[in-house]
User: Fold this.
Amino acid sequence: MAVGDHTFTGNRAEGFSALPADARPLAIEAHGLVKSFDGTRAVDGVDIAVPEGAIYGILGPNGAGKTTTLRMLLGIIDPDEGVRRVFGHDRPHDIGRLIGYLPEERGLYPSMKCIEAIAFMGALRGLSLKEGRARAVELLERHGLAHAADRQIRQLSKGMAQTVQLLGTLVHRPRLVVLDEPFSGLDAINQGKLEMMIRALAEDGVTVIFSTHVIHHAERLCEGVAIIAGGKVPYAGSVEAARDRIPAQVRLETRAREGAWLASLPRETRRNGDFFHFPLPESGVEPLLRQLIEGEAGILSLSIERAGLHDAFVAIAGEAAARQLEADNEESRA
Assistant:
């Protein structure tokens, strides 16, 4: 698969992302970022570290500080306190040609043709218009939009227009791509296409950071996440470590209803009809299995389910933030 001028093989081992996160240089690092507007702190002490080649999500409800955080990271606005570096530079504007940014507020000129819109966005990052037009043609062909190359933006569907703006974000071949709520307003088909593009970029070593209030996008795509609520980041790290904060749950079904084997179940066990539910013991499930077998419980089924990112979000950010996240999702689907 190809995006921009990058050719993707589908083999993550060929890019930065094949290495462990702690073995890769940082594309973005931020320490103690604070930003206030009219006396109200929108962002309050944010710390983030994003390794090169990662797909990283900023996850939180609307109004939590996601967009303000991204704009500080990019140097669009300066923090009141704290430091941020992009590829080691504390002035992101100095390396603007290495960055592609898709803001939440889509801003294409309605009367522009697709080719010209993409070339114009490339020119803002230092490409000549001639080169930008040539790359625009290639991009549109690769993404099935060659037929729309000479159409005005106002003649496109919302999904097509958003794809064109995304291609304009990539036309100058950035090393860092920052997307603010990129899935907002897209139907399921275009969301799937965008997910494929994001994965392809990371496979080529491009760092992708995006904000979202939709947990399943972060869970499917991201190596790491920063959970943000009320301007604070109570968690920043790998998706796997976030999920592991909640013990895996065991679901057990037995033929026997009573017996001495019941005493082997953990104290937190809940019984629901024919099933027993309890956290996975620290010693694992094997010692328990032996006791159940020896006690002739008659195991009919046993499953172990890891917590999802939604459960981790509730545990980390709180139920109020989780309810707001769900309300935002419902609003975006309406």
Summary: The chain has two domains: 2-240, 249-305. Residues 249-305 form one domain. Residues 1-15 have pLDDT under 50 and may be disordered.
